[in-house]
Amino acid sequence: MFKINRILAIFIMILVYIMTSSCVKDDDFKVPNDLGNEENKGLEALLASDAIEVSMGELKLKYANNYRKPVLIETDIYIKGYVSSSDKEGNFFKEVFLQNTPENPTAGIKVILNQVETYNQYNFGREVYIKLKGLFIGEERIGNGVITIGGETATDQYGTTVQRLTENQRAQHIFRSKNTLELTPLVLTFSEVSPDHLGLYVQFNNVEFAENLEGERYYDPIQDFDTLREMQACTNDIGYSKFSLETSSFATFKDILLPLGNGTIKGVITKTFDGSTIVLALNNLSGVKMDDSRCTPLSIEDFGILFKEDFDLAIDDTDLDFDGWTNFAQAGKVLWKESSSDGNGYAEFNPLGSGNASNIGWLITPRITRDSHSYTYLNFKAAQNEVRSASNTLEVLISTDFDGSNVLSATWHPLDAFLPSQTTPSNEFVDSGLIDLSSYGGILYIAFKVKGNGRSTSLSGAYLIDDVFIFEKE
Hints:
Radius of gyration: 30 Å
Low-confidence stretches: 9-33
CATH topology of the largest domain: Jelly Rolls
CATH architecture of the largest domain: Sandwich
Strand content: 35-45%
Number of domains: 3
Largest sheet: 9 strands, mixed
C-alpha cells in the first residue's frame, strides 16, 4: 500500500509541475495565456519586433502592382484582421476570411491553410495577426480575383497560384489575440456589391428567394460541389434586383428548405471557384431571417412619362437646335448634330475631321421639374461609331443648379448607365437601363458629354443619343 501511495504521490507531483510550468503569468506577456504558450510567445515577439503593420489594402496592392502574379513577402510586415467566416457548418473549406475592422470594414482578404474545422481556433470575430515575411500573396485560382495569402506557389499551363499554408507555416505565421469581437454586418444593397467587398461580413435587407425556388433546398443534389440560389430584393428600382447565394455540398444545412418569406440575410461576400460570379456564402442559418410578407416590385406600367425626346424631327447634318436643349462646345468647335438614318432621328457628336486638338461637347436637356416625393427614372439609348480609345468617352451627368446657360459654373454629378463600349458594333444602340434620379430634388438637367479630338484617328469616334425618357411615379 505504501508503495502504491508513493507512486501516486510522485505522479501527482509530476502532473502539478507540468501544469504550472506550462502556464504563463498574466504579467509575462501582453496577451493572455489561454491561447497556449507558443502562440503567446509568437504574438508577443511579433508585436515587440521591428515588423510594421500594413493595411489589407496596401497588401493587396502588392499583388495588383505585380501584373497579378504571386508576390513573395520579403519584408518584416504583418496585418491584423477579424475572422468573418466560419467553417463550423461546413460551408467553407480550408480557408479563413478576415476583414480589417469589426464594423464598417473596407477590406477583406482570404487565407488558405491545410486545416479543417478552423473555427476551433479562428472563431468568428477573433482578432488575428499574420506575420507575412516568407508568405505569398496571390490567387488560389488564376483569374478568380480573390486575393489570397498562401504558403507556397505552384505553376501550371494557366499560370502561377498560391498554395495552402502547411501546419508548420500556420503555427509560425498566424497568431490569435485574446480578443473575440462582435462583428457588425456591413449593410449593402445588391447593386452596391463590388470586388472591394470580398471577404466582408455583410447584411442584405428586404430580401427573398425567387418564386420558382419554392419547395427547393439550399443545395441541389444534382450538383457536384456548390449550388447557386437566386435571391431578389425590392428596392426603389423597377423590378427586382438580384444576387446569388452559394451553398456547399458539405454544408450541414444543405437539405433545409429555402424560406418563402422576405427579410434579412447575413453572410460573407466571396466568389464562385472559377471567379465568374460574386456571391454570398452563409456561415450558418442564424443569419437568415425571412419571416415577413414577400414584397411587390415597382412596374414600368405604373409610371407616367415626365419627359420624352425621340429626335424624330431631326434635320440631318445640322447643328442640334431643339427647343429648350443646350448645345455647348467646351473645347473645339464641334457641336452636337441632328442626324437621321432610315427614318430614325437621333443626336450625334462626331469630331472627325475638325482638326481640333480637343473636342468636348455638351448636350443638355431642357429644364425638368420632378415631384420630390416621387420615384423618378432616366432611360435613353446610346451608340458609338469608330470609337477606338478609352479616352474617347461619353459621360451622363445631372445637375440641380444649372441656370440654363452657364454650363461650366454648374455642379454636375455623374450617373451610372450602361453605355456602348469599343467592342459594341458601330451604330448599334444600347439601352442605358433605368437610372434612379429619386435622390435629386426639384429642378433637374441631364447632360450628355463627349470627349475626343479631330486630329487623332483613335480619338475621333462618334457617339449617338436617342429616345431620352424620364419616368415618374408618386
